[in-house]
Amino acid sequence: MLERAFGKVNLALDIVGRRGDGYHELKMLLQGIDFCDEVEILPARELQVTTDRPDVPDGPGNLAFKAVLLMSERSGRKPNVQVRITKRIFAAAGLAGGSADAAAVLRGLNRLWSLFWPAEKLEKLAAELGSDVPFCIRGGTVLATGRGEILEPLPDLDEHWLVLAKPRIEVSTAWAYRNYSAATVTERPKLAPLLAAVQANDRQALYAGMGNVLESVTCRTYKEIAAIKEEMVRAGAARSLMSGSGPTVFGLVDSQEKGEAVLAAVTNKFDVETVLTKTLRRNES
Ligand code: ATP
After folding, report:
1. Which atom of ligand 1 is nearest to the CA of 64?
2. Is the CB–ligand 1 distance for residue 97 below 6 Å?
3. For 24-36, how does the pLDDT look when each residue is reduced to its tens digit (9 = 90+)?
4. Distance from C-alpha of 85 to C-alpha of 92, rounded to nearest angstrom
5. What is the CATH number assigned to the segment(s) 2-153?
6. 0.90 surpassed by pTM
7. Which residue's CA is the closest to the ligand 1 atom numbered 17?
8. What would the pLDDT profile of 145-204 be if each residue is shown by its tens digit?
9. Which residue, 231, 259, 260, 229, is CA-closest to 246?
10. Domain with CATH 3.30.70.890 in the chain
11. Contact status, residue 217 vs residue 176, Cβ threshold 8 Å
12. Pocket flag, ligand 1, residue 64 (CB < 6 Å)
């Protein structure tokens, strides 16, 4: 059984408060993208999870492993499967790669074990694995609040092309949130106009409303993030932004040709992993 595990970008990430449990209270506009890992699930004698990348953990350190154990525990099935993950989504990048793999395991085992659990139930289980995992069950365009696990699906956007560029630097999510200070934010997403833009499928208003408050942390320390953003716009992107806690930067472009030009420009100037992709509709993932 093969499941595709699609990544996401944040069209918006705002921090609106601090919770008693130490997490930040978030408001995010999440968008599924056509850039995926492949997750193969096969019956086996015992649970085994492997990937094709040395920098992504095999076994219990992999979120997909925890996803199998959770499904096994709640369904009463033995966790006797082999999960083989072919990684394409850049790792530790702000694209929810690990979360997408875990969500793919929940969907895949739901089918393999003929459980017929509805997506809502899978999303609840997903929240036990991580904040971005519930979104990855169905993807699309979603307003995510709380830690990111409270989902309000929005109408699908018309297709957007986007270029992703991940500089070869490591940005820890915990570090980015720890160093966040509202006082240093220069650009906040404009959530209300942004949501209106999604409803109306208005591209210009969408570009204008986007924003990520964590750029105030990462761009200060990692100059290449800001530089890649600028280069994307110079090369023809209508808007560029960092996704999640980074370091991936994405640029929205109004055609595939422009996307190719932007991709060539950033590849020329920076040491980056890149891909040209497009937005996905809900349940296409
Ligand atoms: P998010 O956007 O949800 O914060 P991310 O894109 O920043 O995620 P991931 O690719 O999910 O980051 O990886 C974060 C860490 O999780 C990595 O350092 C890696 O060691 C670990 N990890 C566990 N399982 C996986 C997996 N299946 N794929 C990638 N990383 C995984």
Report:
1. 27
2. yes
3. 999 999 999 999 9
4. 15
5. 3.30.230.10
6. yes
7. 92
8. 999 989 999 999 999 999 999 999 989 999 999 999 988 998 999 999 999 999 999 999
9. 229
10. 161-284
11. yes
12. yes
